[in-house]
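G.,

No rush on this.
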Amino acid sequence: MVNRKELNPDASPQAAFGARLRRSREARGWTQEALSERMGVSSGHISGVETTRKSPSLHFAKAADATFGLVGTVDTFERQWHEMHHGSLLEGFPEYVGYEGRAAEVRLFEAGLIPGPLQAREYTQAVANFSVQQGDITPEQATERVEFLADRQAALFRTPGPLIHAVLDESCIRRPIGGPEVMEAQLVRLLEFAAMPNTGLQIAPFSMGERQPFIRLVHLLTMTDRSVMSYVESQTSGHLDRDPSSALPLVRKYHQLQIEAASQAESVAMIEQLRKGTL
């Protein structure tokens, strides 16, 4: 092939993405033009991604997954895109989200911030905007994060959808994010979530003290085959564990948390009081 550029997948995450795209394309005997027609993007853009002259977008990664039959699998171009953009801070998270969208039951615990599936768009945008102000991400990456969460929520709140239960530390609803209007939209979103037929919402009040078993994010998934997996995050990394022997102790602690936390009716009343400024 004339002017064929040799690719070094070890050069950078973008190079690894481009090399994989070329490898997948050539394994099927497709030219860049043939892949262009299937993905709905220009052949020049495909060439640019393969040779790292252009950076792939989230839309591009999803189109590649659809074209190569990778949607719903673990090792997708979308997962690679998220790892490329978010790095080790979210190690394991893209893989977790892939499972989350196919789970039969989702159990969430969070402290400090409303968990992503329950966030109002205004809340998500406020968190992303602050990351931009801190120099952690670019404005373009902030937009991608907001869009990614919208896609994640659409996969979760499908019909028929999974059973979703969320226990939030009281700090989640008391910590002001983005100002009064943003928090009002967020609290309304929580009330809407609690009213859905396949959801449960509880607040773990500060008064639980040492009886509160978790101090950081814990997500638990039960798949359609009844296998259980867990995802936890520290300050600097995330970890997806598909080993039931590791996940089941967290499930037991989660059940203890539900017993100790306020009931859904009490939790909804707390949120309503917070909206009125009486809590």
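When you get to it, here's the other one too:
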Amino acid sequence: MSDHAANARFAEEATVEPDYLVRARMHALELGAEPISAAVGAQLAVIAAATHAASIVEIGTGGGVSGLWLLRGAPSAILTTIDSEPEHLAAARRAFTDARIPSTRLRYITGRAGDVLPRMNEASYDIVLVDADPAGVIEYVEHGLRLVKPGGIVLVPRVLRGGAVADPTRRDAVTVAYRSLIQETQASPAVIGALSTTGEGLLQLAVAASD
């Protein structure tokens, strides 16, 4: 096993999930949802806590796993979760109830992100998590950057595509889109970008705060 693989395995195994998150993950997997890894979830929680997030949008519920991690870091935040699959939203609702998250802090929207996001208010959220249809990742990130407040953060898990992005021979449309997203945001003066290789990868984009 390479040093990188050993480090990744250690980071994943060292992350401890509360029982309610373990149950949410199990139910999400049973549904065929693809929840974020525990190691990436822990990063989300730290970012949410460090930014004192009060308003969060997640595009793709992951059966409630990502939302639970975000709310673990920002226990007073309002979470809006968007998914085109009603059963995934239903699983998220059960997961939040199991975790005793007050319903007043949760907003559920059933629909395609491409239809929902244009109707949402710009500069209104502290964090936007983009974990939906990979084919639409660039469009969703563009919306996310519009939706966050100055100083807000857009988070994109799974951005390394299981090693495909780093493989120059992979030229399928989705891999090229993720590769372009990383390269263009790293070079952009409008955001401060960081790429974490923990778990399945996490792209972090902080929108520059106004003076």
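The chain has a mean pLDDT of 93. The first helix runs from residue 3 to 14.

Enjoy the weekend,
O.
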